[in-house]
Amino acid sequence: MNSQQNPRLRRLANGLGWFSIGLGVTEIVAPGTLARFIGIRDRRRSRTTMRMYGLREVAAGVGILSRSRPAPWLWARVAGDALDLASLGKTLASGESNRVKAGLATAAVAGVTAADVLCARQMGCASNGSSTTVKDVQLMRTINIDRSPEEIYNYWRDLNNLPRFMKHLASVERTGQNQSHWVINAPGGKKIEWDAQIEEDEPNRRIAWRSWGGSDVDHSGSVQFERAPGGRGTFVRVNLSYTPPGGLIGSTLAKWFGQAPGLLVEENLRALKQVLETGEIARSDASIHSGMHSAQPSAQAATA
Fold first, then answer.
1. DSSP-assigned states of every residue in 119-175
2. pLDDT digits (tens, 9 = 90+) for 193-217
């Protein structure tokens, strides 16, 4: 049955839309009052965060109410719920909250999350016959490194070196001549794993790979090493195509947790440049500590 022909389902979606707008307006207009109500310390930083969450809620609510097929916006609410639960969990763990109020708020958000998931699934199936997904992510990034193509290729080709400059990469284990198993640290303390196979290997020029065997992340990519003119090092170009884990939810969560794919690739390439050119990855307090503080070179910067 089409979602437009299911008044009960549409009423549930509309109710969640109005709830999202109401909550969002409250977070924007009275962030301090709401923070105290749910047991969070009223600080400037918490108010700013609350207002950002409020803008997200209002956008999701408007999307749900204004679209004939609101499933993507409902999934966006689910992603927001996950972020709210993570924030509340962090607050509870810090010991700086009113545990009773924060605990009740967590239970309330969990209940709303269940309703959001139920409605999003039913809306997605009713409208499309399947759950909502996003298209593959396509990206390309290039950096110049003051080293020869041979040196960079050999460094990259040794899988043991990859965790040294790839952010969140926990481990890479060779499982065959051209096969390997990858594990990365994901938001919320979770792990994402996949198996990859090298499909093309042109020494000093290009490496191409693809995931296989029912991996968590369906992707393919390549890295090219092109000698720069005038003896000015090497252009390293990464091409990547992948489907985010969890479809729209995974993609949205990744961006909200500061792990958008393009930014991650850029950070990894800059880290590779630092390792190869200086032997270490430069870190500042801004890259180690969370929250507002002065950024300065860290006395405890670790070598890569």
1. HHHHHHHHHHSS----PPEEEEEEEEESS-HHHHHHHHHSGGGHHHHSTTEEEEEE-
2. 889 999 999 999 999 999 886 666 6
